[in-house]
Specification:
heterotrimer; A mainly alpha (about 180); B alpha+beta (about 350); C alpha+beta (about 140); A: about 180 residues; mainly alpha; Arp2/3 complex 21 kDa subunit ARPC3; C: about 140 residues; alpha+beta; mini-chromosome maintenance (MCM) complex, domain 2; 2 domains; 4-stranded antiparallel sheet; about 30% helix; flat
Amino acid sequence: MQSIQFKITLADRQIAGLTVLAIGLHMIEASFPSPLPGVKPGIANIVVLFVLYRFGFATAASVSLLRVFASGLLFGQLFTPTFFLSLAGAIASLGVLWLAQALPRKAFSAVSVSVLAAMAHIFGQVCLVRLWLIPVPQAWLLLSPLWLTALLFGISNGLMIQALLNQLAPPHQPSTD
Amino acid sequence: MMNRWGWIFSLGLLCSACQAPSTHTEAYVFGTLVEIQIDDAPTAQGQRASNAVLARYQALHRQLHAWQPSELTALNQAISAGQQPFKASPLLRQVLVHAQQLSLQSNGLFNPALGRLIALWGFHQTPYQATIVAPEAVQAVMSQQPSMRALQFSPAGITSNNTAVQLDLGGYAKGFALDEGRAILQSMGIQHALINIGGNVIALGRHHGRPWRVGIQHPRQAGALAALDLPDGWAIGTSGDYQRFYLQDGKRYCHILDPNTGYPAQRSQSATVLIAPQPHAGVLSDVASKPLFIAPKHAALFAQQLGVAAWMIVDAQGHLSLNQAMQARITWLTAVRGQRVLP
Amino acid sequence: MADRGAWSACFTMMQWLARLKRGFQHIDGLLVGDWLTIALCLGLILLYWPEASLGQAKKCQIRQGGQVIGVYDLDQRRRISVKGPLGVSVVQIQQGKVRFSQAPCHNQYCLQQGWLSHAGEVALCLPNQVSIILLGERGFDSLAY
């Protein structure tokens, strides 16, 4: 009997753990009532940004996308509009995160990065609404009010991430053997 | 490959390009409201272009005015005094040749030679006044049969073999100005604009990526009866009895006269025509609504003779008839009665 | 399966939150760039903010998946059923306002949006892809009169 063996590295475990955490945060968030569609603190993104700072962009991207697909599976929403909205938000915010890496760390803390990611998340979702779900020009009316909430939650999430980063010891080298 | 800052920079450019400015200018010329909307052009360029159009309109207004001293009133005086031929400017000559041709195409229902009657009914004054007209006075003018047929164009100038002809380009000038305005805007690099002269509208380009949208006034209510898209080069015009009219003894007298009776047209509340892009689309949007308004029963015939793409008439009883092309384009904003769709 | 995953995630998260609480004491405050970012975002929000003080709407347009179902006067009492991928959404019109009154979607956000009455307002049911758009008095750019 043949079996294929994967070597599971410490980094793999960390990614898995963090992804589980992101999913958990997302589920907790989903269980709270929201006053309006699209208005959510997005606390799962704390994990994604944290991963970005500690493990780099590639890891953050896999955690973010894994979170979207796994949540889709758990909630039974895979390939529904809700799922695609989540995916569009994640992709747009990853794109901006990739760009935001260029920002000098001396002037821009995690708050900036978090705010930009949150704004991009909303922008990606509204674009999808406009182009596919409800293709009317009026869909853009959603953009600004949702951006305002994204800004507020982006700041608070950013403060939390900055606090986490400050509090934790400097990053150790993940073993890659 | 572009670096990260390159991407950020181009994203910024993209965002600033989304918000191209638009200019909205309103002015009163031709005794009516002129509205020019210009999209996607720098404000300075838009303003310069609309000013150029308005300057042209002032000049046209002075040249073609039907009762204040103008080249047209000079021609009218020459005709009634028998001092002919009249050496007209190339513009006036070109306008009258075209107006004569359209008058023939409308079986004389578009008749810009009825200036004397229009004055008789009190519409050659600012502001116009309710006037009691003696049937004999109407009959006196009608018996002389003023029509565009009387005009002859020779190298020496314009002659009329009927001294009762008094030209009034009220049903032509606004449409002519639409065509002129559109050409001026285009020549000044404007790609997207909408010109509205007293309810006659012509479109240039689009409005933020979608066609310009125009509402059609309800003849008896505030607000619009319906709305439709006006694509690039299309023009729309309405003749109605609710703009220039007076009530006397409970009867409505409007400024559009029926050339067959000499009395204000009574058979319609409004007639709207939609003209496809062509060199004189604006003129047609102004001229072609008149025969339909005066003789709504023969709307389909005149629409065909004058090259009207789509039309709609609200008759004197408030009943609506329209052709299929109009039915296909229109969005109703108000409930309408007796909707009759003709091929 | 899902339950166990959720519970373990909750547990991990509690641990992190405990750490986080301690972490708050170490906030250095926002940097120059952060204020710049926040200002930029506020600018964007203001730039795209929907026109203030929208006029009273006279009509609404109902769409399903981009297709216009119809345009309705708000000055009537009426219920309109719209079929979407999840089932039938019911739109209710009365006394110049309109709302979703029944929806087959899971989260029922569309119902929570309540009554709409101003031009330019929009109510959406994303899962069932139904939208209500309130048209203003001028549903057009210019008027032919």
